[in-house]
Amino acid sequence: MTSNKDSRRRDAASMVVPLFLALALLMVGNGLIGSLLGVRADLEGFPTLVTGVVMTMYYGGFLLGSVTIPRWIANVVTSGSLRVSRRCRQRPHWRTHSSSAR
After folding, report:
1. How far is it, in rounded angstroms, from Cα 38 to Cα 90?
2. What gap in Å lies between CA 72 and CA 69, rounded to an integer?
3. Which of the residues 7, 43, 57, 100 has an alpha carbon 20 to 30 A from that of 73?
4. Would residue 88 count as lying in a domain?
């Protein structure tokens, strides 16, 4: 019985590890872009105020996107696109009628 539990644990771990690796890559990328923007703006000679505004707008857009995108997705789902695709996968309506009904 313990081998069954071990097997389930390994299966669960094998499903979770890629998720955490993807999350780690996103976090590293986000940290690097934050550092890169500040350093590169300084090297190009931008004033500190402009660099601060650019960094603020970047992260403000990141926050705004994370708030608005779920609403957009919910609108697409509730607008009927799923009903349409489900209907298209069903049997065509012209096959349900008998030929004598014409």
Report:
1. 54
2. 5
3. 57
4. no
Residue 92 lies in a domain: no
Burial 54-82 (b: 16+ CB within 10 A, else e): eeeeeeeeeeeeeeeeeeeeeeeeeeeee
Q: Does any domain span residue 77?
A: no
DSSP, collapsed to helix, strand or coil, labels residue 38 as helix
The burial class, CB within 10 Å (0-12 / 13-18 / 19+), for 51 is: middle
Range of the domain at 19: 1-63
Q: What is the pLDDT of residues 14-23, one digit of tens each?
A: 888 999 999 9
pLDDT tens digits, one per residue of 24-83: 999 999 889 888 988 999 999 999 999 999 889 988 998 999 999 888 888 777 766 666
Our count of domains for the chain comes to 1
Closest CA to 51 of 38, 61, 63, 62: 38
